[in-house]
Amino acid sequence: MTALSTDSPMPTETSPAQLRERKDRRRAWLLLSPGLLWMALFMVLPMCMVVYVSFWTQTTFSVNSTLTTASWERFLGSATYLHAIGTTLRVWAIVLAATLIVGYPVALYIGLFVRNKTLQTALLVACVIPFWTSFLIRVIAWRPMLGTEGAINTILMKLGLIHEPLTFLLFSEFSVLVGMTQIYCVFMVGPVTFMIGRIDPSVIEAARDLGASFGTIFRRIILPLSLPGVMVGAIFVSVMVLGEFATAASLSGRKVNLLGNIIVSQVGSLKWAFAAVAGVVLTLIITAVIALALRIVDLRKEM
Amino acid sequence: MESRILRPTLGLYAAAFLLFLYGPMIVLTILSFQGPEGGPQFPVQDWSLYWYKQLLGLSEASRVAQLPVGDSLLRSITLAFMTTVVSTVLGVMSAEAFRTRFKGSGPAFYLIILGMMVPGVLVGLGMALLSSTLGISRAWWGTSFVLHVVYTYPFAFLVMLAIFNRFDRTVEEAALSLGVSPAQTFRRVTFPIIFPGVLSAMLFSFTLSYDEFARTLFTAGRDLTLPLAIYGTFSVEIHPNIFAFGVLTTLFSFTLLVIYGLLMKRFTNRAARFAGQEDNG
């Protein structure tokens, strides 16, 4: 290519192809600029604001812009807040593992064992349909399911398996974990099914003809080829679970405090600087998780 | 073969999974027909439509306060509509830009995708801080609206990107080389081809915005949107009227889905008819 000629002082020498490329590029940026401007103003700027305000001075009912690290010191010195970081990480790890354990076999079934295209689509649609119910309603629907007079306890008592209702089911960390797993596991099932469905059946057939057992086929072919799907699913689930607060707020009975809950309660009591500190900590955690996942998989190539 | 055991086992597992997905909603639907004296749990006292009537304000003198859904429903639909229009336009423009490879496309791609990644509670907090610093009053049609677009625009963009990736560029070039103006080419050639994608992008944007809660919580100001009104009732004791509300909103969403399906079908039928004409001529 004549890439070097662009540096020369003779613009008349640029080829038509280069001219066209330049025109295309200008057009691309022109088309992109409203969207990018929107993102810069309404996403990047607010996020910078969170970092900035985390260094402001917090008084009882307001903040002023005198810079200080007092909020950070209070946050990092407080057992409650550090405990919230721990809870957030624990809930994230358990829910991520649960969505994988619950979702992967389903994805394997839909992607590999259902060969009828119509049935395959029908099963995937069946997984997506619950999303047409409002998120908050789906969360609250776990209350009549798990409560002491809820469906599970009623059924177990009728069957005579238990005599006292199980109380750990609702308003505990357990209910938060179950609720989050149910709400987010579809984000794992989707990408994994997609990747498994793309595996060429003849590869598996060839392995079988050569005498490989299903265990070997799974370990050597299916698992490695489905891994990008797992990573994409993991990114989706992680981002959503780490930023969560509504499920914990409505199902844990205030027993589970995630960083998101800390932010909400601090804003509620007008402690903007503390809320901002929690926000920055949350951003750091999410950035670390996404960076880790992106090192393993290139998101743009997989879409 | 092992798959003779494996296939039915996995089939059963998938069935159990669907039960896990739908179980809570089924229980919620059953309990929405609870009698007037019943609570949000089993047993069902007697089957009735009481809570549906109560929700719509048709029952006189109730022991439970009515859900504040009237105005907030209207606000949520207006907000979702505004979000749909803006994010679809932005999504189509950006995806169109990405059809040519250009320097800096990688960072631009990730900047857009970041909008669906960054937690709502964080941008919501940032927006609330920003607006109070700049002295802008918070409102659902202002501060909430821009955040909803930040969230839905990446989805519209990705949908359109997938459509454009499968789109034969030579059709457009043929029109252009025949002397049709770029604007006309877009209207008569490009748009009809990408229309199904546009419809999907709109459906995505509408449902996401209509249900969005975290981004609205700190930015809506005084007037509540529907999810905020629902969230407000969680802090106090819940009643079966929330269940009835859940059933009704799900039905509403399905109506939207059916409208989308009908529009899509009508469009593909027309396209098929058009293709048929071409063949005959």
UniProtKB/TrEMBL annotation, chain B:
It holds the Pfam family BPD_transp_1. One of its GO terms (cellular component) is plasma membrane. This is ABC transporter permease subunit. The chain crosses the membrane at residues 12-33, 73-95, 107-130, 150-168, 189-210, 242-263. It is a multi-pass membrane protein. GO terms for biological process: transmembrane transport. InterPro entries: Bact_Polyamine_Transport, MetI-like, MetI-like_sf. It comes from Pseudooceanicola albus. It is found in: Cell membrane. The keyword Membrane applies. Residues 73-260 form the ABC transmembrane type-1 domain.
